Structures are given as C-alpha cells and as structure tokens.
Amino acid sequence: MKINKIFTLLLVFFSLCAGQNELELAKNAYAQRDFKKVFLLYQKGCDKGDLYACYALALAYRDGDGVAKDSKKAYEMLDSLCAKSVFGACFSLGDFFEQDYQKASLLYQKACDGEHIGACYKLATLLRSHGESQKALRLYEKICQSGEANSCAFAGEIYQKSNATLSQKYYQKACELGLMLACEKVGE
Q: Which N-terminal residues, if any, form the signal peptide (predicted)?
C-alpha cells in the first residue's frame, strides 16, 4: 500500500487538533500501519468540520489508503477544499491536471500564494519546462530561502547563463544544504 508523505504530515496536523484519546489512537493506528483505522479517525474529524481531516480523507480516497481508491470522490473533495483555501488541496488537485498546463499552473499558483512550498516547487518546474525560466527562477529563489537544496541548485543552473556570481552563490547554498551535485559546481 502506498504511503503518501502528505498523508503522514496530515496525521500530525489532525492529531494536534484531536483530543488526547484520538491522538493516541491515531498514532497507534499509524504506527501499526492500520490505515483503515486512521481513515476512520479522519472521517470522524471531517464529519466534525475539520478541513485538514477532510483533506487527509481526500488523499486517502486518492491513494486508496484505508479505503477503496476513488479518484472521483478525491477530486470532488479536493476541489471543494481548494475553494475554501485549503492550499494543500489546491496542490493535490493540481496533480490531477499535470497534462493540462493552464489548469495545473493556476492550482499550483493558488497553493503557492498560500505559502505551500511543494506547490511553489511544482509550479517552478512546470514553468521551466514550458520555457518560462525567469518566472521559475523567482520561485526557485523563494523556495531556496526556505532551505530546499534542489531549488537552490536550479536557481544556480538558470543563473549560470547570465550571472556567474549569483550562480555560484546558489550552488554554494545548495552544497551547504547537502546536495553533493551542487558541491561539484562550486568553483566551476
């Protein structure tokens, strides 16, 4: 069964909102890989109006974690949550449209505007793949400031063509963040 990193993070968010008993139940269920029980806890939270629990529930439907996979239900839930500015939902909804540049970029942009770093990264990658390197560069620089090494390296790569000093600055930062491939670019 596929374990989604976002699903795991949402377990933490939901757990923070849950009562102590539910927190322990969710932790134990997750540790035992009892995704059905985790799903039921998310369902309970969603029924109480917890938007993050609803988001986790949508991801469970999308991935088939603890419940039969249901892309249509996941899409509907994510769409509704994105309309309520649950930016993780906008990010996940964007993944449904990876082949549709316009729709995906709008959804990733909305999530990025809400400070969802993963969405900013996806948007930058999408922009770059469509020849919009300067827009991508601004996003990579923003993401790099949050400590994401690959974004620093991509900023360095884009600057390599126009500004050797900035290129080296970003490769150095990526290297300091542990990206060994960037370390090889420092001093080139």
A: 1-18
Amino acid present at 46: C
- What predicted TM-score, i.e. pTM, was given to this entire model? 0.80
Start and end residues for every CATH 1.25.40.10 domain found in the chain: 112-188
- Domain 112-188 sits in CATH at 1.25.40.10
CB count in 10 Å sphere of residue 21:
8
| Whole-angstrom distance, CA of residue 11 vs CA of residue 21 | 14
Measuring CA to CA, which residue among 35, 95, 93, 40 is closest to residue 66? 35
For 47-57, the pLDDT digits (tens) are 888 888 899 89
**pLDDT-derived band of residue 183, with 50, 70 and 90 as boundaries?**
very high
What residue type is 51 in one-letter code? L
Pair 57, 77: CB distance under 8 Å: yes
* 130, two tokens: 């469509």
